[in-house]
Amino acid sequence: MNKEEKYFHDVGASVDGALSGKLFGKLCFKINKKAFCCFFEDEMVFKLNGDFHKKALTLNGSQLFDPSKKGRPMKEWVQVPFEHHKHWKKFATAAAEYVGG
Fold it and tell me: Which CATH architecture has domain 3-100?
């Protein structure tokens, strides 16, 4: 396990009620059986809305999540590079609140 994956696990597991699972074959964390974050290409991906979504997209290298790489991004999901890992915890918490209702 590399440092990025370890940090992903630490952040995801720190969210109250989160359980690990899979999303598109990738590691993820879920709340109430709904994925709120996943790990892709050594980066963390979050299901966000509102100001958190906007903030995540302002970070250098962040982008809408397009796991197929066919120009069909998932509009609510933002992929955030490890260089911004200091933001991962707040995005994970916001994402869990968003999908957890």
Answer: Alpha-Beta Complex (3.90)
